């Protein structure tokens, strides 16, 4: 699904054939599929309205108007039959039921990075709250939206919460001014508290491993600390130095190469295809000899949100690899072997890393850097894929299909779908 101004376009994922076209009341600012892919939510934040469309019954539609309360966020519940709307100033969360048309209210949600999270099985929801200048967490049962647990947290300014994939442990972390990560059980008991240091800027990013055995914490001190699920103690620290010295680490460096043109095909005036190949720069990967000095950017200390520390973390689906990005070294992706807790690969790009995401089915990482190329890494090696097309298609984000057979590449104004062929066994 994609939106163009006030129109919602639904296409077949394999053929891109147009399936449905819906018209909303105003410009669409957010869309989201229900978990069963039968409904699509369209949020019109400026109007405080949510419109819902059905793929099975195109004539059916639903409109939710928050009125004077306004609207700043909207999302589906895991069952795909309830919609959660957050009103302006985070006064409340309204839960709308598409089945019974009933309405429930959750008061005092906190405006933070990640304040509403669901367990992977969809049974429970945790909400970060702020009451009387104190932080709290409420856990709700998603089947009837009844409050299961409500407890205060030992935080000064709660920044985010995240369930472990098995749904047994909830991680909560404090503001970047206070290094503190808290781990709670489903019944609200504090299992453990972790603090790496006291005074400098603290937690910047957090990621659970798919097996729930590890919790990776990216910090402003350019390190990743990994906690284990048995004692909740640190088992290792992963450094991101500007110089890669280990001979056991493979450094792939992106280099530009001149386009090769067959002289027999030269003609005047040149064809469009030939002109495109003549003036487009191509790139490839070279293996660098260690030690390798990476491009290091010194952060500006007197500005808010300094470009320093580990801001991006992601575990592979098989639990074997961890990909990280240190904002001080914006052109590099670090890939760690979790089985050995060692740095395995560094991808050094020509441009700043915009986004990376693991294939949901196998250890294969896709990276984009704001250019018209997408980069793929797997344990077998890495490659550069040039996106064909006219004009300058700058990829700023990407998303894998759940099957791992394709991915969507997004620019500011356009998108394209990249299909990957599976190897015959």
TrEMBL record:
Pfam hit, one: WD40
InterPro entries to which the protein is assigned, alphabetical: Centrosome-WD_assoc (IPR052778), WD40/YVTN_repeat-like_dom_sf (IPR015943), WD40_rpt (IPR001680)
Family matches, as Gene3D superfamilies: YVTN repeat-like/Quinoprotein amine dehydrogenase
GO CC annotations, alphabetized: microtubule organizing center; MWP complex
PANTHER family according to UniProt: WD REPEAT PROTEIN 8-RELATED, WD REPEAT-CONTAINING PROTEIN WRAP73
Protein name, per record: WRP73 protein
């Amino acid at each position: 699904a994609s939106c163009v101004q006030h129109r919602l376009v639904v296409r077949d994922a394999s053929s891109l054939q147009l399936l449905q076209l819906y018209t909303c009341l105003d410009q669409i600012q957010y869309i989201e599929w229900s978990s069963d892919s039968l409904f699509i939510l369209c949020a019109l934040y400026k109007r405080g309205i949510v419109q819902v469309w059905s793929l099975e019954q195109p004539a059916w539609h639903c409109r939710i108007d928050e009125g004077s309360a306004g609207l700043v966020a909207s999302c589906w519940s895991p069952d795909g039959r309830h919609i959660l709307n957050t009103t302006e100033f985070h006064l409340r969360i309204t839960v709308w039921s598409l089945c019974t048309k009933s309405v429930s209210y959750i008061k005092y949600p906190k405006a933070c990075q990640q304040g509403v999270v669901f367990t992977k099985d969809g049974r429970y929801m945790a909400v970060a709250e702020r009451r009387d200048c104190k932080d709290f967490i409420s856990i709700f049962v998603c089947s009837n939206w009844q409050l299961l647990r409500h407890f205060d947290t030992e935080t000064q300014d709660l920044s985010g919460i995240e369930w472990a994939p098995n749904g047994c442990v909830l991680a909560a972390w404090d503001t970047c001014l206070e290094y503190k990560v808290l781990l709670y059980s489903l019944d609200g008991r504090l299992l453990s508290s972790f603090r790496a240091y006291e005074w400098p800027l603290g937690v910047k990013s957090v990621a659970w491993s798919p097996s729930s055995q590890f919790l990776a914490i990216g910090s402003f001190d350019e390190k990743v600390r990994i906690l284990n699920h048995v004692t909740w103690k640190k088992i290792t620290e992963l450094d991101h130095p500007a110089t890669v010295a280990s001979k056991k680490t493979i450094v792939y460096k992106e280099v530009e190469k001149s386009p090769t043109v067959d002289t027999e095909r030269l003609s005047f005036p040149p064809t469009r295809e030939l002109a495109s190949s003549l003036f487009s720069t191509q790139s490839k990967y070279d293996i660098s000899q260690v030690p390798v000095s990476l491009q290091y950017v010194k952060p500006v200390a007197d500005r808010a949100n300094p470009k320093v520390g580990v801001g991006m973390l992601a575990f592979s689906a098989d639990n074997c690899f961890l990909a990280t990005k240190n904002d001080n070294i914006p052109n590099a992706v670090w890939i760690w072997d979790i089985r050995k807790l060692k740095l395995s690969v560094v991808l050094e790009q020509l441009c700043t890393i915009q986004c990376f995401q693991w294939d949901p089915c196998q250890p294969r990482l896709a990276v984009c850097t704001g250019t018209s190329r997408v980069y793929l890494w797997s344990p077998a090696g890495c490659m550069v894929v040039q996106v064909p097309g006219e004009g300058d298609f700058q990829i700023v984000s990407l998303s894998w299909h759940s099957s791992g057979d394709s991915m969507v590449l997004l620019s500011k104004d356009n998108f394209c779908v990249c299909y990957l062929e599976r190897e015959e066994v």
